[in-house]
Amino acid sequence: MSMPNLNGVDAARELQETSHRTRTILLTHHDEDQYLTEALRAGVKGYVFKTQAATDLVRAIRQVCRGETYLSPSISRTVAEAFLSKTPIPADPLTSWECQVLQLVGEGKSSKDIAVLLEILIKTAESHRTRPMRKLDIHEVASLVRYAIRRGLVQA
Fold it and tell me: If residue 47 lies in a helix (H) or strand (E), which one and from where to where?
């Protein structure tokens, strides 16, 4: 989920867009509902906790190769409980592009750095920095970085 320059969900989304036959498995330490939901919406077929990788990863690979979805057992309980309680998981207000820019901001990248990394104009990078701030009603970059950390886009 948390990688430099591009998070795991966005990487999975890009893989799905470029190769529909590719099946992705996330190896993560995030156990919050929002990460799982976002990953599944991005087309991830397996969600394995790093703490359970030794026992779950081979099983996940085999199951995903058969065309099935694999969730670590503890996350399966969470999904079942959320379904049974019928508690809706709110959709993310940010697009994947905005999340990618937000991650770069959280990593301390300037607008110029973002422009170079994403191969866009500096003015475009600046507008991509301000759009999430408007959507989230955040008025300073420090608060935006805190949001990125809470979302798991950046490691604290």
Answer: strand 46-49
pLDDT of residue 112: 92
DSSP secondary-structure letter at 26?
E
96-106 vs 111-118: helix crossing angle, rounded to 10? 130
Pair (103, 49) in one structural domain = no
Residues 6+ apart with CB under 8 A from 112: 122, 125
Question: Residues 81, 68, 72, CA angle at the centre, nearest 5°?
Answer: 45
Render pLDDT for 17-54 as a digit per residue (tens, 0 to 9).
888 788 999 888 777 777 777 788 888 899 888 888 88
Q: 76: domain range?
A: 8-85
Q: Domains in the chain: how many in total?
A: 2
- The confidence band for 65, taking pLDDT boundaries of 50, 70 and 90, is very high
67: left (phi over 0), alpha (psi -120 to 50) or beta: left
Residue 91 maps to a domain: no
What's the pTM? 0.55
